[in-house]
Design the sequence.
């Protein structure tokens, strides 16, 4: 096999590394920024990069709804709330507790070392069992809209409907939570509480 | 650490001379673990409730990556359906959570979680 064929067949892996590196850098940006709006923008970058990873894993439908639902709908909601509340950049907890600045990186590096060890162990052990590291037959697993819809509306119809009910509850709940009380309602609640206290006494 | 482990994986693959480089399950799991760890670190370090919420979303994304990777490498579409449902739940959670944040800000005029600790013993 010549070099050109080898490189052209390795393009998914190269794309995977590029998007994975982008995702990790942006994820660090999410937790290191002090201004929430910059964290939100970095999180959008993480989600777009993960959509790229999903594409390299042959899941175009999941990649599409990752962009539409996460990067589109949910992050717009976040940015909207940040803008609405006019949040100012607050001081980090590391300004108050000095030693955390030195403890946190050490703990983080220890966790990453564990990840590295586990990854090495997987590559060393899991080869024969279910051939977990080889790509399964690509024609069998492709996350197209057709194959996902087939499973969603036959085998997994009940979970799908349950999710619809959950969304409905979330809509009603968030409207109730975010509703501002009118002065009359506040006075009624205050009077009711006072009457209850008087009866209890 | 991450480039080191990825580099080792690459070296192992390159031993098979001339073969194209395929994505491995362990790379996806490593990326997912790293993103999840960063999310946990954010929850521990940050004090702004909106950023805490974004770190939770980051952790959900890391779990989604695991599900998609296993769906791909074990040849089963169920993992991707799971991701779809996780995304729906995340959307519902974001809506309710942001409503709670708005009403918290209205009552307390703050977004710092250390100043909203009435339930703390």
Sequence:
């Amino acid at each position: 096999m010549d070099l050109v064929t080898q490189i052209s067949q390795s393009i998914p892996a190269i794309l995977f590394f590029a998007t994975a590196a982008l995702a990790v850098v942006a994820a660090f940006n999410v937790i290191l920024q002090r201004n929430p709006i910059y964290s939100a923008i970095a999180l959008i970058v993480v989600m777009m990069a993960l959509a790229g990873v999903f594409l390299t894993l042959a899941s175009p439908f999941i990649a599409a709804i990752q962009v539409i639902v996460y990067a589109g709908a949910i992050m717009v909601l976040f940015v909207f709330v940040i803008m609405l509340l006019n949040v100012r950049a607050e001081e980090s907890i590391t300004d108050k507790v000095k030693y955390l600045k030195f403890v946190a990186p050490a703990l983080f590096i220890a966790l990453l070392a564990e990840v590295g060890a586990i990854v090495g162990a997987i590559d060393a052990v899991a080869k024969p069992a279910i051939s977990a590291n080889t790509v399964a037959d690509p024609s069998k697993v492709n996350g197209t809209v057709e194959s996902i819809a087939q499973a969603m509306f036959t085998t997994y119809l009940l979970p799908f409907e349950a999710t619809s009910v959950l969304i409905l509850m979330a809509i009603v709940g968030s409207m109730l939570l975010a509703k501002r009380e009118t002065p009359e309602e506040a006075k009624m609640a205050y009077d009711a509480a006072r009457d209850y206290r008087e009866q209890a006494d | 650490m991450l480039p080191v482990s990825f580099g080792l994986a690459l070296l192992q693959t390159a031993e098979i001379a001339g073969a194209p480089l395929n994505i491995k399950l362990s790379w996806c799991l490593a990326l997912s673990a790293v993103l999840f760890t960063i999310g946990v670190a954010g929850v521990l370090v940050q004090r702004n409730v909106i950023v805490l919420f974004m770190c939770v979303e980051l952790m959900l994304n890391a779990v989604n990556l695991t599900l998609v990777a296993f769906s791909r490498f074990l040849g089963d579409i169920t993992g991707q359906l799971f991701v779809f449902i996780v995304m729906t739940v995340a959307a519902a959670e974001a809506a309710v959570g942001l409503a709670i944040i708005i009403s918290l800000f209205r009552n307390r005029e703050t977004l710092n979680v250390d100043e909203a600790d009435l339930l703390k013993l």
